[in-house]
Amino acid sequence: MTQFLITLWLAMGRLPFALYRLASSGLSGVLALLLFALARERRMVALTNLSLCFPEASVTQRIRWAIAHIYFYLRTFLDRAWLWSGNESVVRDRVRIDNPQSLAGLDGAPATIFLAPHFLGLDAAWSRLCLEVDMVTMYSNQKNPVLNELILHGRSKFGDQLLLSRQQGVRPLLTAMKKGRPLYYLPDMDFGERDSVFVNFFGVKAATVTAVARLAKMLNAQVVPVTTVYRNGRYHIRIHEPLPNFPLEDDTESTQAMNHHIESWVKDNIAQYLWLHKRFKTRPPGESRIY
C-alpha cells in the first residue's frame, strides 16, 4: 500500500504545472478543513502553540492561522513529489533564490552554517541550494523503511550531498565542514534536555539545542540564516546576512539570541512556520506539561 501511494503521489508531481497547481491546491484545501475538524490532537497542538506565542491574537485569528498552516503543510508535502522526482529545470523554475549574489560570500569564511528554521518550505530550499553548493546535513531515520529510502534518495538527488544520521554523531559532520561543506541545520525542534538549554521562544521557555553556538565557536563559522516562503505556486528563498556578533561568549546567550532572530522571521510568515510540532513538550524542572 505504501509503495502504491508513493507511485500515485510521484505521478501527480509530473503533471503539467498549471494542472498540478489546480489539483494540489484543491486537494490541500479540502484536506486542510477535514484534518482541522478530525485530527483533534494535532489541531490542539497547533492552537496551543499559537496561543502561547501570540496570546494577544483573537481565537478566530489563531484558528485561521492553524487552518492555513495545515493547508501549507499539505501543499509542501505534495510538492516534494516534483522536488524529489523532477529535473533541475523544474526545481530552478519553481524554487527561486531571491538574492543569489549572497552565495558569493561563502568562499571567504572558514566554515558556514546555513541556519534553516522550520518553515514549511525548508525541503524546497535544500533542493534548490543543492544545485549551487554541496552541503552536509543531519537527518532522523523514519520507522517506515520505504519512506526512509524515498526521503534519502530525494534529498540526495542533486549534487554531491552528505546526509548523516543522528546516530553517526558529530565527528563526520565536523570533518565535512572543515573540508568546506556548509552545514544545513534545523535548530528549532524539541529534542529533549540533552545538549539543550531552556531559553525563551515568544516568551515561553523552550528546550533549544546549543549546537549552532558550539559549532560556530569551534569552527569559527559564519551563521547564515535561510528562510523560505511559499507564494503563488512557487517557493522564494531569502539568504540573510550572517548573524552579527555571533556566537557570544556564553552558549545560552547565543542560543537565546538565535531564538529572537527566528521569532522575527516567524512574525513575517506565521502560517508557514511548523506549529504542528510540540515545541514546548520538554519543560523546565517543576513546570507542568503543556500538551
Q: Briefly note the structural class of the backbone.
A: alpha/beta
* Low-pLDDT windows of residues: none
Rg calc: 19 Å
The helix/strand series, from N terminus to C terminus, equals HHHHHEEHEHEHEEEHEEH
Distance between the termini: 32 Å
Average pLDDT reading: 93
Give the strand order of the largest sheet, numbering strands 1, 2, ... along the chain. 1-9-8-2-5-3-4
Described by the principal axes of the CA atoms, the overall outline is globular
Number of β-strand runs: 9
β-strand percent reads: 15-25%
As for the number of domains, it is 1
Query: What proportion of the residues is helical, as a percent range?
Result: 40-55%
Can you summarize the main beta sheet? 7 strands, mixed
Continuous helix count: 10
Give your account of this protein's structure.
The chain has 291 residues and is of the alpha/beta class. It has one domain (2-272). It is built from 10 helices and 9 strands. The two termini are 32 Å apart. This is Lipid A biosynthesis acyltransferase. It holds the Pfam family Lip_A_acyltrans. The chain crosses the membrane at residues 18-39. Keywords: Acyltransferase, Cell inner membrane, Cell membrane, Membrane, Transferase, Transmembrane, Transmembrane helix.
